[in-house]
Amino acid sequence: MNINIITLFPEIFSALNSGLLGQAIERKDIAINIVNLRDYSMNEYGQVDDKPYGGGEGMVLMAEPLERSIQSISRDKRGNIVNLSPQGERFSQSKAQKLSKLDNLTIIAGRYEGIDERIINQYVDEEISIGDFVLSGGEFAALTLIDVCARFIPGVIGNNKSVELDSFSAGLLKGPVFTRPEKYNNESVPEILLSGNHALIQEWKDEQSLLRTLERRPELLNNIKLTKKQKKLLED
């Protein structure tokens, strides 16, 4: 997968060189192309923003530098163009899975009060929000989007089964997990996890996942088709 990132702060994306993402980039499972918006500024001062028409707070990223930066990416490498914005569709695990199947993706990491609407109308395929809050810039949202999408790309995660069992992948939250020691601060690991009975252990994990979702994110239960067994457990 090739990911283009249009940004005012390329240095933020040095974080991509760490951990599993860094390894994936090194193996060429993912290619990252960072486009510095300042390189396509309007004048010698590096101007890429201006005051909004009609007044208001802050500054707006100008259309022309954005257009130039998009056009600097060859058409066959642009793919879908995504603008990260609080006004966009809420990002989710299922959305990440869809995006991960694209060969090419271009992300606009906006700043200030946003980007000129004409760029959205003429170039952007979709707007995405990572949550109902406001960040200082789209760079951190872009890092989040890339990290989540990358987990679905074959080869990035060593054990693909772990991706299938992630919270939200099956519509439910993941249940509690434990590791050594068996007893810590007078609290012991549930005996069933030490039993060696894989069928019962899996049943316990499924139940815990369902119960944790009920306790912490009950609205998620409206989005999945529950089995008879799950419905009975919730009733109990």
Specify the helix fraction band. 25-40%
Number of domains: 2
Rg, rounded, reads: 22 Å
CATH superfamily grouping of the largest domain: SPOUT methyltransferase, trefoil knot domain
Helix- and strand-based class? alpha/beta
Mean pLDDT comes to: 94
Uncertain residue segments: none
Largest sheet: 5 strands, parallel
The general outline is elongated
CATH topology of the largest domain: Alpha/beta knot
Give the C-level CATH assignment of the largest domain: Alpha Beta
- Total helix count? 9
For the termini, the CA-CA separation is: 46 Å
Relative strand content: 15-25%
- What is the N-to-C order of secondary-structure elements (H for helix, E for strand)? EHEEEHHEHEHEHHEEHH
Question: Count of DSSP E strands?
Answer: 9
Going across the major beta sheet, what is the strand order? Answer: 2-1-6-5-7
CATH architecture of the largest domain: 3-Layer(aba) Sandwich
Task: Summarize the structure in words.
- It contains 9 helices and 9 strands.
- It has 236 residues and is an alpha/beta fold.
- It has 2 domains: 2-150, Alpha/beta knot, CATH 3.40.1280; 165-235, tRNA(m1g37)methyltransferase, domain 2 (Trp Operon Repressor, Chain A).
- It has a 5-stranded parallel β-sheet. Strands 3-4 form a two-stranded antiparallel sheet.
- Strand 1, helix 1 and strand 2 form a beta-alpha-beta unit.
